[in-house]
């Protein structure tokens, strides 16, 4: 599996100019939007996007506000309603028919907010489904939470420190994933990163929105003893709240960055889910995702 940066593009939205990457497919190909987490950018999907494109999908990965090469509004402008509105505008501007959303952490929270209309004010766009990786129970993380603490140290430390940390902690990852994590850490504005947490906290608990899902969804988490942000109690609640047309799966050997630490396993589940939701003639969830 090789990394492919895709085609870089820009689109003017009400909030400003947004950058995205596109892996184009034929006009009949289903569309998938990859929504990155806090402190990341479209670079986080360096192996996921090309693999989904190779499977025949039209793949797009936007840089959310404040990230990558997209517009950077002032601190205090990073609540879930604002970011979900950006994603809604992105879908409208590119005229994407019923895309599937795949989100990681903050991106998962944004995707869930958009799909359920939790931010209010607008009717959600037509979507074919959701994949929510490491959906936080809420956005009110603290600086001593391991995932947040470690990433802040990478952002605030020297490049030598960040590289040595990644080489040690992420030594089992594919080199492309280690490099994309470093690119994220070196390219992230600390003030924006903290604003996402502070502003996003205003949305309150996120897991109750799962019960409102009317479209298929696959919720994924890593192992909390390896860095997952979802506690065992949160995971039990997630499984109770999910409607019957949705599924949940835990990666016991991964932490918060499932799509990087176990890219092959992640892609197997996601592609199974895609075949069940956006491909014609494959109704219902496959047996690997039921229960």
Automatic annotation (TrEMBL):
<dbReference type="GO" id="GO:0016020">
    <property type="term" value="C:membrane"/>
</dbReference>
<dbReference type="Pfam" id="PF00561">
    <property type="entry name" value="Abhydrolase_1"/>
</dbReference>
<dbReference type="InterPro" id="IPR050266">
    <property type="entry name" value="AB_hydrolase_sf"/>
</dbReference>
<feature type="domain" description="AB hydrolase-1">
    <location>
        <begin position="30"/>
        <end position="160"/>
    </location>
</feature>
<dbReference type="InterPro" id="IPR029058">
    <property type="entry name" value="AB_hydrolase_fold"/>
</dbReference>
<dbReference type="GO" id="GO:0016787">
    <property type="term" value="F:hydrolase activity"/>
</dbReference>
<keyword id="KW-0378">Hydrolase</keyword>
<dbReference type="InterPro" id="IPR000073">
    <property type="entry name" value="AB_hydrolase_1"/>
</dbReference>
<protein>
    <submittedName>
        <fullName>Alpha/beta hydrolase</fullName>
    </submittedName>
</protein>
């Amino acid at each position: 599996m090789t990394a492919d940066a895709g085609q870089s593009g820009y689109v003017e939205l009400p909030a400003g100019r947004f950058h995205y990457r596109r892996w184009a497919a034929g006009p009949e190909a289903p569309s998938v939007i990859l929504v990155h987490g806090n402190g990341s950018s479209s670079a986080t999907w360096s192996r996921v996007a090309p693999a989904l494109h190779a499977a025949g999908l039209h793949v797009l990965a936007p840089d959310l506000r404040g990230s990558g090469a997209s517009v950077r509004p002032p601190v205090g402008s990073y609540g879930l309603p604002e970011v979900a509105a950006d994603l809604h505008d992105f879908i409208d501007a590119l005229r994407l028919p019923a895309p599937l959303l795949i989100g990681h952490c903050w991106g998962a929270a944004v995707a869930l907010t958009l799909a359920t209309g939790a931010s209010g004010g607008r009717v959600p766009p037509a979507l074919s489904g959701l994949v929510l990786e490491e959906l936080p129970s809420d956005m009110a993380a603290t600086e001593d939470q391991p995932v947040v603490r470690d990433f802040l140290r990478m952002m605030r430390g020297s490049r030598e420190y960040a590289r040595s940390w990644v080489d040690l902690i992420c030594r089992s990852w594919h080199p492309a994933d280690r490099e994309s994590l470093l690119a994220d850490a070196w390219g992230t504005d600390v003030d924006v990163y903290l604003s996402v947490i502070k502003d996003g906290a205003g949305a309150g608990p996120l897991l109750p929105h799962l019960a409102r899902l009317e479209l298929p969804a696959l919720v994924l988490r890593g192992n909390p003893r390896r860095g997952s942000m979802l506690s065992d109690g949160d995971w039990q609640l997630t499984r109770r709240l999910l409607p019957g047309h949705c599924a949940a799966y835990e990666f016991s050997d991964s932490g918060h960055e499932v799509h990087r630490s176990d890219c092959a396993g992640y892609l197997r589940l996601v592609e199974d889910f895609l075949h069940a939701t956006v491909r014609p003639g494959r109704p219902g969830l496959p047996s690997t995702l039921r229960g």
